Every structure is written in structure tokens, then in C-alpha cells.
Amino acid sequence: MTLNSSTFIADRREGGEGLIDEDVAARLQMNLYTAAPRRTELVNMGWLRPSGKFGSTKMGSDSIRWELTPEAIERLNLQ
């Protein structure tokens, strides 16, 4: 479990629809180019997946929202 994953846990508990990389960077007061690779690591480890939903970046572009996988939710007892 990493600090980055804690943002997705908080989003889940708040009833969110997933986070774009900019959301994670802002919540962690981290550079986007540091946050995005950490998200990729969480995807590769099976903690996150694309939600199928999109959010808007500061520049107005669509960006995929990422969410915890069902396996992660079960492991973390977040049902």
C-alpha cells in the first residue's frame, strides 16, 4: 500500500467516480509527472483499473478516471 493508493481509498469512501492523474497529483501536492508513474505501478500491481469514465484536465482535455479494482476493494474491506 502506498500513499498514492490512499487517495483512491479516500475517493472510494467519499463515493467518488475515480480520479484522474491531475486529481491525485493535487491531493498529494505532487508533480503530475511523478504521480502518473505511481498510478501506473498501482495498475500493474492490480490495485487500480480504468473506470470507464472521464474527467477534464486543467487544459480541458478528457482524462480517464482510475478506480480501485474489485480485488483491491475486497483486500481492503471497502465493500
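The above is record 1. Record 2 follows with the same two-line structure.
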Amino acid sequence: MSKLDLGMFIHAAQDFEASQYRILAELKRIQANFSHNRIYPDLAQLIDLYTSLTTVTQSSEGLREALPKLEDCVSLNLP
């Protein structure tokens, strides 16, 4: 049993297809546990993952907003 965490999404860049199958398999396992009313370890895990992914998304949006400002500050003096 693998744990669904942020690392699974980060390592997806190395082997997208294999990571996609691992993530989907883990989500299917969690869904099966939920359908049998076994939510304890999986719900906490999903909440942690949601928090991590939200933080990463917000950080990347902040970086995108900061890059145009940084570009304005840098002047390129090319011949």
C-alpha cells in the first residue's frame, strides 16, 4: 500500500504514465475504503494532500505575479 502524498505528484514529471496509474490506484483504494465507511486514515491523508497542493498552487500564482514585476526591474542592455 503506497501513501498518496505530494511526492507522488512531484515525481510524476519523471515517469508520467506510471505515476498516473499509481495515483489512480491509490484513489481507487481510498474510494473503496470510503464506500465501506472506513474513512479514518485516508481522510486525514487527503486533507494533508489538499493543504499541500493548495499551498503549492498559491505559491506558484504568487511567483507568476512577481515575475512580470521582476522583468520590469531588470533592464537588458544588449548591443
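The first helix runs from residue 6 to 10.
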